[in-house]
Automatic annotation (TrEMBL):
DUF427 domain residues: 134-226
InterPro entries (UniProt xref): DUF427 (IPR007361), DUF427_sf (IPR038694)
Pfam families, alphabetized: NTP_transf_9
Lineage: Eukaryota, Fungi, Dikarya, Ascomycota, Pezizomycotina
Protein known as: DUF427 domain-containing protein
Length: 239
């Protein structure tokens, strides 16, 4: 079902034609036109209640507040209770907020998306190649040094440095089982760093198959700035 998603936030409403499909355990639960309200640092989809399939939504708590109630979204044997529905008297009249992180699968148009939340239309990611030397240390021990880097600039976040794997001291890294998802970069895997017997958990991450807008960081190693001493052309970066 095609139509407009209204993106409401930052005092600048936008209308973008999109179709949204949500799935739980691979069973299609709704196809709809929705409103996207960026009320927090992360955006949510706000979907017209009329767009849900009959029986998909069940009210679970009417006492939460006069303008909204908790609900359960069900598809076959699977369900999630991370759903908030708004009454006709609310400023978000007859809209339903669904946390996409509670879903097994969600699509915008024909694209299957990853991550704990939709993309923010006011956020962008720039990946810029740089030959400036990046040196990463822990208590004076060099764990990485590279002049073949990509600087990743993401709106409202600090710059991250993605280093060539050739410059990494691999003997200090231990593979971690941790993974995470970013709407702007894709699925990340992690390494722990061990120096003089001291472990820094999930201190390095990388993207084997980043999404298109972050393609330049593929296979590069990013050290968590806040956990290391990072030098840019010999000048120490503030943590």
């Amino acid at each position: 079902m095609f139509g407009n998603i209204n993106i409401v936030g930052y005092l600048r409403p936008i209308s973008i034609p999109k179709s949204l499909v949500l799935e739980i355990s691979m069973d299609q639960s709704s196809s709809c036109v929705s409103e996207w309200l960026t009320e927090t640092s992360d955006p949510y989809f706000y979907i017209p209640i009329s767009a849900f399939l009959p029986g998909a939504l069940t009210k679970t708590d009417a006492s939460t507040g006069k303008d909204y109630w908790l609900a359960t979204l069900t598809s076959g044997p699977s369900s999630t209770s991370r759903v908030l529905a708004f009454s006709p008297s609310s400023s978000l009249s007859n809209l339903v907020r669904v946390e996409v992180s509670a879903l097994d699968t969600w699509f915008v148009e024909d694209e299957k998306l990853l991550g704990p939340h939709p993309k923010d239309p006011y956020k962008r990611v720039d990946c810029i190649p740089s030959s400036r030397e990046i040196k990463v240390e822990v208590n004076g021990t060099v764990v990485a040094r590279s002049t073949q880097n990509v600087f990743l600039y993401e709106t409202l976040l600090r710059t991250r440095f993605y280093l060539s794997p050739v410059g990494v001291e691999w003997g200090l890294l231990r593979e971690s089982s941790t993974t995470s998802y970013c709407p702007y970069k894709g699925m990340a895997n992690y390494y722990d760093v061990v120096v003089d017997g001291n472990e820094i958990k999930d201190a390095v991450w990388y993207y084997n198959y980043p999404i298109a807008e972050s393609a330049l960081v593929a296979g590069r190693m990013c050290f968590y700035n806040e956990k290391f001493d990072v030098f840019i052309d010999g000048v120490k970066e503030e943590k």
